[in-house]
């Protein structure tokens, strides 16, 4: 098997170590778990959903690791890639396919996809943002977010004879004239 070609083994090993240590504070980066192997394959686009699926990746992981081991070494990692590469890059020679797979991985770092972002605004800013108020609380502020004072808090009784919040208040006389 050709050793890397244009992709240096150091760059590949560097990415291997980063993914191997990802999510585990005690990991040395010399051995990779199946979970991190799957993460590497997904993020580096080894899994394309057509030729290679996550199931293929899991099967290859089980195949290359030692019988009782739960992790793979860098050498086993290269063997796993050698097994997946021809399937992922059809129509290329085995060496070209492995080279293409190495290029996908070399220099890549694991990303934190789906990690919850911390809101930059403090709790007070979020809670006092009047644009997010709903229901009766929204009625207490005008369009600019300024409070309406007592008018916004209390039901003011209008002695007009109309039901509260009736939009046509004061139009009876006009309608009566029309008839």
TrEMBL record:
GO terms for molecular function: tubulin binding. Its main location: cytoplasm. One of its GO terms (biological process) is positive regulation of protein polymerization. Keywords: Cytoplasm, Cytoskeleton, Microtubule. It holds the Pfam family p25-alpha. It is found in: Cytoplasm, Cytoskeleton. One of its GO terms (cellular component) is microtubule. InterPro entries: EF-hand-dom_pair (IPR011992), TPP/p25 (IPR008907). It comes from the Eukaryota. Belongs to the TPPP family. This is Tubulin polymerization-promoting protein family member 3. It comes from Chiloscyllium punctatum. The lineage of its organism: Eukaryota, Metazoa, Chordata, Craniata, Vertebrata.
């Amino acid at each position: 098997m050709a050793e890397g070609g244009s992709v240096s083994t150091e760059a590949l090993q560097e990415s291997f170590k980063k993914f191997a240590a990802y999510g585990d504070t005690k990991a040395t980066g010399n051995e990779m778990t199946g979970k991190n192997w799957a993460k590497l394959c997904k993020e580096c686009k080894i899994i394309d959903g057509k030729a290679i699926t996550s199931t293929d990746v899991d099967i290859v992981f089980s195949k290359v690791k030692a019988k009782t081991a739960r992790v793979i070494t860098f050498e086993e990692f290269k063997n796993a890639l050698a097994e997946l590469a021809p399937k992922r890059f059809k129509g290329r020679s085995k060496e070209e396919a492995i080279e293409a797979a190495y290029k996908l991985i070399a220099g890549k770092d694991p990303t934190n996809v789906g990690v919850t972002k911390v809101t930059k605004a403090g709790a007070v800013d979020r809670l006092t943002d009047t644009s997010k108020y709903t229901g009766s609380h929204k009625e207490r502020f005008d369009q600019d977010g300024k409070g309406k004072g007592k008018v916004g808090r209390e039901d003011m009784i209008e002695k007009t004879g109309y039901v509260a919040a009736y939009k046509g208040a004061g139009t009876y006389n006009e309608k009566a004239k029309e008839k």
